[in-house]
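PROTEIN FOLDING TASK:
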Amino acid sequence: MTTTDTELLNAIERVRNGDRDAFRTVVELLHGQGYSLARRMMATTEDAEDALQEAFVRCYRALPTFRGSSAVATWFYRIVYTTCLNMLDVKRRRPLLDGMDEQFDVGEDVSDDGHGDLIPMVLEALDGLPVHYRTILGMFYIQDCSIDDIHAITHLAHGTIKARLSRGRNLLRVALHERLDVERNEA
């Protein structure tokens, strides 16, 4: 068990014992990775922030039922994932609103390691994939979730996860090749 896991479990126990301020620790420890998952699923940064906020509300309400049979992060990712799916479902039912052409905000700080131009390009290409591929790829490569973790979060079959990883990688490869070809032709 990592220090973060221990901190999360301690904070959850304090919340269960009536210390509402301890939930701030839960939010601080889960915010970054929760936002990353929400951002991969939602079309805009605003939608991702809304989904994450809703997920934290649901998390707070569900803390009394947390059994500890999975890691806190895995349990929380499940909440974020289902919250995003629910929001996407509601959006599909509503008429399309302004802003659907918004470009995805990469917004990632890139170190000066010689790959500064490549990382935003990969993230932009990833954001352009259909949600079911970019979500699985994001969980696997960005959140560093295992196939078992992704299964616990999404309840998808292992074979489905592996197929989406494979197809998603292929789609990402094609998108990157197309992008590189366009940049070469423009140069």
Confidence is low (pLDDT under 50) at residues 94-116. DSSP finds eight helices and no strands in the chain. The radius of gyration is 18 Å.
